Amino acid sequence: CVLCGRTDDCPEKYGEKRTYVEYNLTVHYYCLLMSSGIWQRGEEDEGVDGFLIKDIRKEVNRAAKLKCNICRKKGASIGCVAPKCKRSYHFPCGIQKECIFQFMEDFRSYCWEHKPVQKLPVKESRGTSQCTICLDLVEQLPLYTVLKSPCCKNTWFHRECLQYQALSAGIYFFRCTVCNNKDLFQKEMLRMGIHIPEKDASWELEENAYQDLLQCYQHCDTKRCLCKKGRDYNKPDSKWEIKRCQYCGSRGTHLACSSMKSWEQNWECMECRSILAKSGNYSKQKKRSLATSEKTDGTCLLEEPSPKCPRQSPGSQRSFLLQSPKIMCQNNLSSCSYLELPASNSVTMSLSPLMSKRNWSTRKKHFRQQRSEVSNILKELKLQINTKTTRLNINAENIWNSAVKGFRRRSFNPTNTIEIKFTNCRNRPTTDSSAASKHHFFQILMLHLQNSSLFEGSSAKNLSLDFQAVKENLYFEAGKMIAVSLVHGGPSPGFFSKTLFNCLVYGPENVKPALEDVADVDVARTIKMIKYANSLSSLESTIHDCYELLAAAGCLRPITALCDKDMLVNDILIHHVIKRIISPLESFRQGLKTLGVLEKMQMYPEEFSSILCHKPERLSAEVICDLFTIHSSSDTNKIEGADFWLGYLQDVESGESVVTLEDILLFATGSLSIPPIGFDPEPTIKFLHIRYPIGNRLLNCLELPITETYEQFKKNMEFTIRNTLKVARE
């Protein structure tokens, strides 16, 4: 290695050892990362992961003048960051002397005297415990070779075990082995010098590792199988379709062999039926079709839904307060069941004033239906996206230029999975999760476009004429960015004017602009003076005063009557709003063709208008309730948790809480709004025996505590969400 001078090839200790024959260069990756005088100034595919070859040469020359305080040899490229400390050392020497190297932010290094240590309570008992990774004994002492879990009391690890676990699990799956805490655990381990690589887990990268799990049970187990083609024959949507037991999934039957109809959803094998009968929980259910609910004038009749009733759309006519929360059993994810209503199969309730207030207006229902259809269209477009990853390194201080540079890279392909890595002023990679970083990037990008010189107007915007942007082809890039954001799960712009949208969908020659589309105050004033002139003389005077403007627009025409003003106004509007920006408009249209978005806009104009011309609907308790699917474990039979959750949403919506509905969504998913394509995976809720709620943004899962009282539930929710988001903002 040109930096440490050692020939050791130990990826776990020193990182991957790389040799570049063309540059006559060999280097350990960790030696390069931790060197004090070098930064990643190139793209990821340049040099050594962004470290330019000439910069590496300079660093080698700089280190050649520094003597290692440990081995006394020259070439010490790493220095302690503690103030007034002048110690320098090689990376392997630092490991040997128990220095701390932090693989985050500025990649700081601390010598053996100034290294961070874990603070332990004075009264905490000392002794031995079991390392939960290797299961060998570990001393409960603040040593370099031993680390304590920040989230679990009396949980200790060997440093070496933790490092191997981190290298295997990667940043997405490395967490506390006892409580599964991820954020706090990773933060502490990074502080104490554990390297957590930004990659997927090793078991996720293994080809066909889960192939056995994809096999479904396909066998008819009835005593007398009627199928002539055998017990293993399965033909979907026919009487020879095999239904699996809704409880165990390990027994099956042909529909015809058990006299079942195609629309029937429930079937239990004899073993499961006998177990349920012994426990007293089994009762012969009536065979039901999927349609189970009706609505009458003034009252709402609720029936117990079918166990496989499809998820209702946000615009369905019902109040979320009346419906039973959806609960899916973890033991069998292929089937779901609803919480039973406390009364009989049907309950009649009168609509209260609160219920009528929560009924959506016809307009809102129409918008929600359109947005639901857009989500399906975008999911269809997303089928183009493959698993190959394109990584964009985005400078947090100059997102626009970084985005343009990334989108223009020759290797950029919109059909690849996009991974965003934010860098600070020194271009050091951050440790944010990929999904959160990507959504945050697209959110800031859409906001930048809205306020950029490419668009003009207050809230509903049209394209402006920016000659420099035309020269640099930025209108094409803007259209491309919007298309990519929509298909890759980012937000929609939501600021298009109707005129701009119609120009994109129907063509500029078929659009008639309005006075509201004119953003230039002087031009708008001139148009108003012409439009509201009440005599021929005043009209002629106005035309004389704005002669240069009309001549430049090519709108000069002989005026013989007062009614000619209408044609003149129309000419000025068409020139200023459409003809003037015809070149930017065409470039913008070409950019929107990326991934087939413009084609879908032209096929479904009303649906896309709901997301491009309107901001996302304001979150409500009903929207949040419908968004999350509730999961329950087998030991959770009580429904107080679900009741507390619904009540808490009501309190938040009515302003009786210190957090907002947006805070809840951000805590669970990392997003302030629901993207047009929806969330992947779909947001879920689990009620667990934990003290505080946990937001798993990787899985969009909200883990909620089961508490005895609503006050305790609300207190824990507000404390955790408020403080978590406060730390994130800081």
TrEMBL record:
Pathway where it operates: Protein modification; protein ubiquitination
UniProt xrefs under InterPro entries: EPHD, HECT_dom, Hect_E3_ubiquitin_ligase, PHD-type_Zinc_Finger, PHD_PHF7/G2E3-like, PHF7/G2E3_ePHD, Znf_FYVE_PHD, Znf_PHD
Top-rank lineage group of the source organism: Eukaryota
Any single Gene Ontology cellular-component annotation: nucleus
SMART domains: HECTc (SM00119), PHD (SM00249)
UniProt keyword terms in alphabetical order: Ligase, Metal-binding, Nucleus, Transferase, Ubl conjugation pathway, Zinc, Zinc-finger
UniProt xrefs under Pfam families: HECT (PF00632), PHD_G2E3 (PF26054), zf-HC5HC2H (PF13771)
Coiled-coil stretches noted in the UniProt entry, renumbered to this chain: none
Chief place where the protein resides: nucleus
Key word Nucleus present: yes
Subcellular localization: Nucleus
Domain PHD-type span(s) in chain numbering: 1-115
Any one Gene Ontology molecular-function term assigned to this protein's record: zinc ion binding
Gene3D superfamilies the UniProt entry points to: Hect, E3 ligase catalytic domains, Zinc/RING finger domain, C3HC4 (zinc finger)
Key word Zinc present: yes
PANTHER family assigned to the protein according to its UniProt record, in alphabetical order: G2_M PHASE-SPECIFIC E3 UBIQUITIN-PROTEIN LIGASE, PHD FINGER PROTEIN
Protein name: G2E3 ligase
